[in-house]
Protein 1
Amino acid sequence: MTKWIDVCATSDIDAEDVMRFDHGGQTFAIYHSPDGKFYATDGLCTHEKVHLADGLVMDNIIECPKHNGRFDYRDGSAKGAPVCVNLKTYPVKVEAGKIMMEIGK
Amino acid sequence: MVIVGGGKAGARAIVGLRGYGWEGSITLINAENLMPYDRPPLSKAAITDEAEPLPTSLLDLDMMTSLNVNHMRHTSAIDINRGSQTITLSNGSKVLYHRLLLATGAAPRKIPLEGGERALTLRDFADARKIRHAFATGKSVAIIGGGFIGLELAASATKYGCKVTVIESQPRILMRGVPDEIAGHVAARHASAGVTILTEVSVVQINPRSVVLTDDREIDAEILIAGIGAAPRTALAQKAGLAIDNGIACDTKMQTSDPFIWAAGDCCSFPHPIFDNMRMRLESWRNASDQAVTAVENMMGASRDFTAVPWFWSDQYDLSLQIAGVPGLGLSTVRRNLRDGAFIVCHMDADGRLVGASGIGRGNTIARDIRLLELLIGKKARPSAVQLSDANFQLKGLIKTDIAA
Ligand SMILES: Cc1cc2nc3c(=O)[nH]c(=O)nc-3n(C[C@H](O)[C@H](O)[C@H](O)COP(=O)(O)OP(=O)(O)OC[C@H]3O[C@@H](n4cnc5c(N)ncnc54)[C@H](O)[C@@H]3O)c2cc1C
Ligand code: FES
């Protein structure tokens, strides 16, 4: 069964930016891409579990604030050393100005 | 391809070579008897973690195998014959090289006093375990040198309830590394954790359980630590007749004075194109990694300049400090206050060009702005004091609207 969870309003995240979102003991990172789309990934870097929301978004890349590991936040793919494990991504939809994500089981 | 030294630079070079499509042989000559591991945790988590630490591996056995590396552990390179392109190893055997990367790192300086051999130093995993076990006894600790490693160890020692004294000969801690305001912030945090920081004094005598200072004071020092910096490991290069200048002297392409030998990381110095080709040697994790990437690219035939902006971080207690660029080149500063008491000092040169940024704050509060400032430093940008001091001003905008000089 899928369940959509309210995250925030679309206006809460600037374009080309990221926001931290905690839910049910988990932490996520929600992105607003420069072309106006929204994405969600696990909130912690796969290298040393640092909050990615403190990092920098440039185009479709989130850069980890600790050692500059890079991920494409659209598919979670790790873009080379020091990060080699991909980030988990989650489905996101926008309805009536609200961002919602699906966390799964 | 042969690499001497299995630290951050050596390990990154291996991944880089395979990444750039090198299919020939790679030999790693590594003095240590461990797989390549990370050093930054050695003064932090390896000391403070509840569990006995394990080395933070950079390349494990599986990766070494899949990257098809001939890893000679516990083996030192002791001689390079540049004419025949042959390296002599500590076990007497010889290795031929086509292209050679020297990534020998740096070694901690020793205290040049009688009894100085009692002072513990920190560079390798084994050193960290020794220090951890010493701290675990809860005895008194004196740390000679208020630099980054000394201060990180001071912070780590407080976790074991040790009575800690840091002895710094300069007027304040982190004299070379950061501006006054940041050093003051760090010093205050140490004071609140119970660490005593003494400045403008040095050790004149080492006793079995104490040290005596220039002002005749005697300081408890059941455990004595030397944190007085590190010297580049240049002996091998020097013996081979390579140019040395505060480290193995490289050009902007990380090539040494021999056209078949490159160097990367803490062992070498290089002229930095972004800072008027000023020659510098850096001891920084990211620098070791970035230089290795440039070096191997050039070893494979490219001709790329190394232009990465210097960047360093240090963690002490809940504080994280980051430095980008070369703050020492700045003549004036602008302060940027961020949330939760975090702040960044931006350093400008005489022409108003941004040349450095140093920041401190809890967790990663400063990371994003430091990263943006680093990009601006790389672009030789001249942001205004108004823009820099206004935390609500989006630095990202400056990067997009190319304002390079
Ligand atoms: C305790 C500690 C904490 C640190 N914390 C930070 C931090 O918070 N942030 C930061 O940016 N940087 C930090 N650094 C600096 C960072 O770790 C170094 O810049 C980095 O390790 C340099 O990598 P390297 O490969 O040049 O040298 P090293 O990592 O020193 O590796 C050199 C290797 O070469 C081997 N070797 C030397 N000579 C020979 C030979 N003749 N034959 C074979 N092998 C040889 C050595 O045994 C060693 O394994 C820290 C360093 C230390 C020691
Ligand atoms: S913690 Fe993210 S790159 Fe290291």
Note: The mean pLDDT of chain B is 96.
Protein 2
Amino acid sequence: MGEEDGERKFRFVGTRPIRHDGVDKVTGRAQFGADYSLPGMLWGRVLRSPHAHARIVRIDTRAAMAIPGVKAAATSADLPEIEPGPGPANLAHLSRNVLAREKVLYHGHAVAAIAATSEAVAERALLAIEVEYEPLPVVLDLDDAMAPGAAILHEDLKTRGGKDAGPTNVAAITEYDRGDVDAGLAEADVTVRRSYRTQTVHQGYIEPHAALAQTGVDGQSVLWCCTQGAFTVRAYCAALLGLDVSQLKVIPTEIGGGFGGKTTVYQEPLAILLARKAGRPVKMVMNREEVFRATGPGAATHTEIELGARQDGTITAARVRMCFEAGGFPGSPAGAAAMTVLAPYEIPNYAIESLDVVCNKPRTAAYRGPGAPQAAFAIESALDELAEKLSIDPIDLRLRCAAKQGTRTPYGPTFKRIGLIETLEAARDSSHYKAPLGPDQGRGIAVGFWFNAGLNSSAEVHLNEDGTAIVATGNPDLSGSRASLAIMAAEELGIEVHRVRPVVADTDSVGFTDLSGGSRVTFATGQAVIDACRQVVRELRQRAAKIWDCDPDQVDFVDGRCVPAKGSGLSEEPLALAEVARQAGRTGGPINGQAQLTARGAGPSFATHLCDVEVDPETGRIEVLRYTAVQDAGRAIHPGYVEGQMQGGAAQGMGWALNEELVFDTQGVLQNPGFLDYRMPVASDLPMIETVVVEVPNPNHPYGVRGVGETPIVPPLAAVANAVRRAAGVCITRLPISPPRLLAALHDESGGDS
Amino acid sequence: MTRMHITTCLNGEEIDFLCEPHQSLLHVLRDELKLTGTKEGCGTGDCGACSVILDGRLVNSCLTLAAEVQGRSVETVEGVAGPVSQAGTVGLHPIQQKLLEHAALQCGVCTPGIVMAVKALLDREPDPSEREVRYWLAGNLCRCTGYDKIVRAVLDAAAELRNLPEERQPA
Ligand code: FES
Ligand code: FES
């Protein structure tokens, strides 16, 4: 249990103060990536490959450089050669994604970059760059990539975790197993065997990638960019450009959405490179088409599942095989999918296999709960079918095998206190679950799981001379994290939330902090803030002791005041924090706290979602009538932003289920690189999204925080598909469930395995 | 190329600027006038992040030529709030205030466009239904919130505006 869990009465945790950056954001004063500019600034643009797969024979930028106004050009020849090697972020691949070297691996792959006095001149210069390509056969998708004799994207690629040494497009295999699957299936009274497919999707953040770089003649560079992790950008840029980390300062701007897609670099190193070459600041902003063609898709997948259960609902065995499209470079979340797919359940016999497969599409980036939504779509759909075959309520079936404290996960560790059962029960007891349904309507339920991340965080708390405080951390604020960090500081210091000013600091001004992702900011950085505040409190007690001329042990800190400890025999009047702060100069100097940690014990997060749909059997149109998201947040620091993330994740998941799909032609050219044709949910597509926040405290966080951001996108794909299946009576095995696809399934006598 | 000399009323103030004939209002606002509150999410009229009000009508400034605003009146997000008081939020328009109270923004990049779209809606329809709000905002993409809190904030702001006495109605 957390040290304060249960007993502690919170003053600010669980309240809904207006976020500190709110006024800036509703008045247009907040500065996002593209909102910065500098005097004498040049504009950078990127030349992109017209081929999905080709060898680069020659690049010549001389004609482009001769155009008046063109100040610099860059190709991969300007980047230090980084040998392929292992590591979480393969820098050789990252370098080749930033600027193609030997080959282009997808349509839209960056080939060269230009800096010029205006965007128009830079665009004209791109046309003057001569590139000679030798086109190669296009490896479109998983089936192409794994077919015998398939064209190979990376000649040196070997399957990590695999047995074959030969040239392959399979970059890695992840496997987990337990027990005897064949025996388990033989024991089953009922089995379900299905194959599921999901398509390539995009994170769809509204703000395109933007970067502004400035370099001095001393080689020191400053980079403003919209990123989920300024320290990550600094590390990548320094490595890709061969700079010392200390030569680069990254200033994170406000960020207009990321969802995992802004955890890597694209034009950031190019802006620095061009600024160094030109000796002037360079700004680069992608247009929407480039965002779609060259950044972050979430992987398309193919999953085969076999499930068996006894008549009483005991699941006896599961076999899961997943294939993830990584795009041009290895690194899809196939491994995470293998870890998450069966994690919510206790199953005695299972075999999980998951493949990371390269093909000629953009390199995938993280997308909210990477790999888990696709995995959950498959397993939660199969479970639902199993429940129907067994005539068991789908929530009851899940409750019978739900993971709980002590359940061993397929990937190794044993769960401590978790809240899956609580979310299932809350869903079962909700008014939504009991509401009647009309004709052509159906209700789906699905469960989702995400680990949540810990990683490294730093925090600084500066107590100002008037008793207000600055909380500086290194995490860009994507969804109200400033407010939650300030609430935690206010709780520790016993001062009003708006007397705490939370600041997102640049890489020179705060200690190393891993990126905002993995639902880690409130959990991990929050812990660093709490630690730093506790240092401040220790210092406050010492200062009060000095003022009172007593031992610090004789001073307690309660509700923002130093008071004589019980039994200390002191009878001094309490000293408010502001009073101690005012006297800091006379009692030992400024009062600051500083903490850094590697947060361990992130609390796994589970959610159960309910979805009601109505299908129109004549047109195949699906309308979402009602939606409820239940999630264990551990502890909701600012409930408004917890609910908001649950609603936002649910909406993204509904889009993934119903509409969203990047459509590629046979040459690997994206056909819908815009919001008009890549159809994300708009306000009129959705109902209100009801939320139920369950709080099963994380024993590893002082307040019980688990982290919220990823899990809500995990269940909706299956929740929607299960609702459609129950409404229309056809099995849904392919996303998105677009009207034509549903119509085809309805007309397909074979049961709609479309 | 000869630049055009345009005179317009921007957030209640007479201003003039030079622009190329093909330049969008969005680019002039952001790059020439340095009013970066209006955002570019797509440049093709599909996201609404660039919403401004032109002679009382909601338009996408990325699809509006800068030259078109000659002699007309443009409102941007920078002109919606009054001065911010020491207490922090007093100068906000009720739409802005309600968006904050309802936690109806996460990243906030869609927010300026939403503020302008809602202002245009409530200027013409002071008592919209939830459905009307949803269809009116269908041109404003928000990827973070799922719209729930935005819609609630709009309905709440509408109610508040209806109840404000005449003399306290925002301009
Ligand atoms: S930028 Fe104008 S609609 Fe998207
Ligand atoms: S709050 Fe991020 S797009 Fe709307």
Note: Strands of chain B lie at 4-10, 13-19, 51-54, 57-60, 73-75.
Protein 3
Amino acid sequence: MNTNHLKAIVAIKRVIDYNVKVRVKADLSDVDLSNTKMSMNPFCEIAVEEAVRLKEAGIVDDILVVSIGPKNCQEQIRSALALGADRGLQVECDVSASPLDVARILQKIQQEEGADIFLLGKQSIDTDNNQTGQMLAALLDCPQATCASRIQIEQNKAIVTREVDGGLLTVEMPLPVVITTDLRLNEPRFAALPKIMQAKRKPLAVKTLADLDIKLTTDIELISVSSPAHRQAGIMLNSVDELISTLRSDAQVQIPKHGEEA
Amino acid sequence: MERDVMSFDVVIVGAGAAGLSAACRLKQLAQTQQTEISVCVVEKGSEVGAHIVSGAVIDPKALNELFPDWHERQAPLTVPATEDQILWLRNSTQHWTIPTWLAPKTMHNTGNYIASLGNLCRWLADQAEDLGVEIFPGFPAAEVIYHENGSVRGILTADMGLDAQNTPKSGHMPGMILEAKFTLFSEGCRGHLGKALIEKYALDQNKDPQHYAIGIKELWDIDPVKHQPGLVIHGTGWPLQGDTNGGFFLYHTDNHQIAMGLIVDLNYSNPWVSPFDECQQLKHHPVFAQYLEGGKRVSYGARAIAKGGFNSLPKMTFPGGLLIGCDAGTLNVSRIKGTHTAMKSGMLAAEAILDAMQNQQTEAISFESHFRNSWLYDELFQSKNFGPALHKLGPFWGGAFNTLEQNLFQGRFPLKLHDKKADHLQIKLAAHCLKINYPKPDGLLSFDKLSSVYLSNTNHEEDQPCHLHLHDNKQPYRVNIPLHNEPAQRFCPAGVYEVIEESSQPRLQINAQNCLHCKTCDIKDSGQNIQWLPPEGGGGPNYPNM
Ligand SMILES: Cc1cc2nc3c(=O)[nH]c(=O)nc-3n(C[C@H](O)[C@H](O)[C@H](O)COP(=O)(O)OP(=O)(O)OC[C@H]3O[C@@H](n4cnc5c(N)ncnc54)[C@H](O)[C@@H]3O)c2cc1C
Ligand code: SF4
């Protein structure tokens, strides 16, 4: 028997599109995002898709999508609504919130919504923290399953297969639960044109941090951003001897002479 | 296959300057006439602006008419052109400065703005959405759909989720039919649907063939000390040689950035010419190096330009639709500006569509009179000889002719020059032409193609049908490779076409993922054997600020 009429909340983040080559600002203060293509974080998209599949399976009947950010993150909320979510909520926030702050905001929302399943991406491809879901579960004092590659909901419990180093781990836990998604969980669908149009008419609420009575913590400061070091051009060598002497002289590699102890 | 259908009053293909201006004007006119009109725009790029490459020095003439309050609405035209320099590069180190009185008047830029057309389009899209236009990025129009009586019914959007063999993958989403009373085609230069429509309705009958150029553009962060916002530099000469014509631009925009590039006419005859390498070489000239040295290249892109002008302009209306902007060829080549003219053509199309809807006509026939009575017509008419003069007389005497005509005769020289030979027919045998050995890029000012394409953020889902279709798979082996040393290797600015020697047999490899949607291969291939088709939605470059 299926547990019906569950409520799901999916948290999504607006990030630089994965096709775009990240460019650091000339003053190293941050990544340059001016007029660059932004998208829903791919792991968040997988979370939305999973919620929609749970809805299509008759398990979930209400999906709320939450994004925390400036006004333009409404674009990503609309994309999630076009994929099949029911309602959107933007929490206005013009600065980049830390994972803990995001978790605190989501906790507040959960207090109002009382969802049974909280879905998040395992990490966002911009800051790669992989923390928010875990912190949220701690704040809510509820079970968590991170890096999910399979989710089954049965009789008020979640059975989740997690991707761990070198294998899979299947866990079972009572609802409500926080689940973060991994790449292999599903393949998100394309949004169809009529769905995109309908999404424009779905409810999208906006709340401020003050509405939620949240003050951002200020204990993390971004000091500088730098691009990876330039890879040097390769050189062509003609013999093993030349290779060894180049390694010794240019790359300062300690290679014992023939017959020497290493 | 049964296709889903959605209906609108007007469907617009392409969210560029022309399409978005038409969309805004339609809604504005409907508001003043107190009628309702549903307008939908499809755009193949992943977002509006993602596929736009332009210079750009923009004449705000059309924008002033469309949104007189564009300043208050914060249109991204913030850098007025303050100084024009016109240069002739004599060789790799020297140049002449042409006094402004000697240059054609059309080259003067007072009153214009240096801007990113991509960003202007992003802004126009916001205005359009505020007016109630539905914009769908990531949805290419793949085919024109016709009524039984031969008039245009609308378009079919591209399928999503087909594999390389054209079979549906899991999650496949078939394209839909978007039908409308009128469909506007504003795909920019060499739209693949525009091309089909011109042929179907013989819109170019009795016109000169369309002429084209390829524009290659880079964006650079430069040393703030060297930056002079508002400085506009145009010129020609080195490194182009022989019958290869073209011109360069270097604009000082905001944020300590420079937009620079080279435009190479596609009527060149030497198959060894590589517009990309010409552009790379150009940056070593002191005129460029003085600004670029110590700077950092941040973006790269390329796009073809339709520059035939008045003499090549096809009939722009047909039953059920119109062709506007560079899809038709409204660029004013004497000013190398196509933005304001594309916008104006869209605005005129909107007026004609509302007339036609009121009079229950299926063809927007009043377009012709709106066009003839507009400044757009005057502007294009006055510069009708500019391109042909450069093609026929070369950049020096052609330039002299253009100065005389534009400055003394105000473009009303009692003679009409024509250029009747299509660009793709010009290519000569490789063996009869001077082989050009381009210098190796230094990695500081000049770069190879792959690291350039990298900066365009282009991407295409790998497992999908190849969107560069050869009508005849054997033609490259019969003609292009043996006779012309496959010019596509060099004219494609993205390294899509590669001839690989395999056990002493050449093999043409098409790296479609790298494609920048510039359309040059569709234009310049001598046998017209390459057909550019739209890839899966959202594929292609992701240009920021271009
Ligand atoms: C290097 C360069 C420099 C230039 N410099 C200047 C300048 O300084 N000043 C100036 O005024 N003009 C300049 N131009 C010309 C100017 O950019 C064009 O005239 C102008 O962009 C034309 O506008 P458009 O709307 O007709 O087409 P575009 O701007 O090309 O827009 C067409 C849009 O349609 C979309 N599209 C195409 N096909 C489809 C399809 N089948 N389905 C869905 N969407 C589709 C494209 O992705 C694109 O977004 C320059 C051009 C180049 C290449
Ligand atoms: S394949 Fe054709 S359209 Fe694509 S970048 Fe090369 S020349 Fe341009």
Note: Chain A has six helices and eleven strands.
Protein 4
Amino acid sequence: MACSETQKLVAEYLGGEMTVAQRTACEYHFSVCEDCRQAVDGLAGTAGRLLHWEQVTIPDWDRTASTAEEVSAQKTRPEVVPLNTRSRQIPGGWQSWLPLAATVALAVFLGWNQDSGLSEQELTAYLDAFEQRQQAQTQRIMETAMQEFGDSTSDSMAQLVEWIQAQRTADMQQLEASFQQMLNHDYQALSSMQQLASWVSTQEP
Amino acid sequence: MERTELALIQRAIQGQPDAWQALVRTHETRVYNFGLRMTGSVDDAQDLLQEVFFSAYQNLSGFRQDAQFSTWLMRIAYNRAVDQARRRKVRDADPLPTSTETVDDRPGPAAETQSQQRNQQLQSWLAALPLEQRMVIELKFFQEMTFDDIASLESISPNTAKTRFYAGLARLKTLMGDCDGLF
Ligand SMILES: [Zn+2]
């Protein structure tokens, strides 16, 4: 296109934001610029057709669903379920779920808000790697515990294992709830790692 | 913002279901029609509607009362629509439907009205646009936003918004071609 102003002028003209003086100036330019005249003539009809849209009334729907937390969360966001399933598989936690949650929040935030972002596969791979790290960590802690409690009875060992399991379950539930809340949250408003971390940490499961 | 709406929001935050439902009724048609044009599908538009109001309800206490509720809600609708499109992209690894068959899969009445046919035709044209162009066309023509507001909502420059708007219209013009007497 020879005229460098065509896109901008035609967009502004058809976008309907011009003052009368601006419109007049613009129309004068169109009268002397073949490129712009052709563009605006063609696209004005296109824009006009869009205005034939007729408002559709909604078929009956459940207006109360938006206030029912759990059901709605599952029903309206089916694609996040696999993510929660994954988080359920993350072993251990050991108070370290918070940085993880913030990191994943950031990953989701970046991935789902940028065209060239993180894919679901990459996110899954990330969570897999995390899972392996956690397993190794849990193993190390268990080994340390074995050494420390080596002389103890099998009863106290069983209690320790029970305690670890309880910790895991509690952390997992907290992590899951935070994920769900985070995904339901309008997370485009969260703009930094710090914000995400503090947001996740202040959410009550 | 109208005092009554502000009162409704305050009552909804306090957990009064009637107040929330009244708010939903006021804005649901706009959100639903936005969804129909953005997704090209009745099912997806209904999902989007649920998601938008779910998210709005969850975040209601964060609504700044000096802002317009409708603007705030459209921001959520925008985010949810982009999110839904991305999730669908991951799910289907396939662009939006471009054939009219997928646009409205409800068993319609025997004789569709001309306005229904026109809407379906428009939906299928819009569905053939890249999301970023469809969004700017939607926000400009149907939500009547300024380029500056669109730019701010989408975190792009006003010039990018104008370029997308122009490119979207040009693409639509090609798609429309010489269409029949519907319009
Ligand atoms: Zn020109």
Note: Chain B touches chain A through 55 residues (CB under 8 Å).
